[in-house]
Write a structure and sequence with these properties.
The longest helix has 21 residues. The strands form 3 sheets. This protein has a 7-stranded mixed sheet. It has a 3-stranded mixed sheet with strand order 8-7-10. A two-stranded antiparallel ribbon has the order 4-5. It is α/β, with parallel strands linked by helices and 211 residues long. Helix 2 runs parallel beside helix 3. The chain is built from 6 helices and 12 strands. It is globular, with a radius of gyration of 16 Å. Helix content is 32%, strand content 20%. The chain has a single domain, classed as 3-Layer(aba) Sandwich (Rossmann fold).
Amino acid sequence: MSPDCAADEKAQLRARVRAARRSTAPARAALADAQLSAHVTAWAAGAQTLIAYAALPFEPCVDAALEAARSRGVRVLLPIARPGRALGFGALDGPIEGLPRAGRWQIREPAPTHTAAEALLASPAPSTALLVPGLAFDRAGMRLGNGGGFYDRTFGPDGGAGPLLARLRSAGLRVAGACRAAEVVDALPRAPWDLRAGAALTEAGRQEFRA
């Protein structure tokens, strides 16, 4: 598939997923979020550092899992996005609902405390879990993001912390994507710089991906 065709297909997929998320009844979305958070908590068991995300409107929300982790003394790190740059990270030191919204996308962000590399190295690899949001994941673990390139620029094979992440994954660091169960698909258009997840966490549970 040519790069232009892949880009067009990704744009169409993004539009469909966003429309489906917006049309989901709030009560149904809240139930799915609660189920997802329970699966995130189980997946991240034993982690000393959980690198996750603060959900945007209509994005699968894992706030309950983040609060549960923080209450257990887990270091919870959330992304800080600035246009054209790799993600930075900040520690969640208080209730997530108290975080200010910042930047172009009004993402809930803590104060910056870590580069991506520092976040990955904050705990030993087997005690670190990286949870990335996505609009969809395929059965090889390839991710469809929002199109800004932040996660690929940061953690993809060619990203600033990509080579480090690859080494740490081989040493036991966990990487999973978060989405809705209907957003796990057979195949997605892909590029060499795309981040690959080892599993998807959804309201239905955990699905491991083949390499």
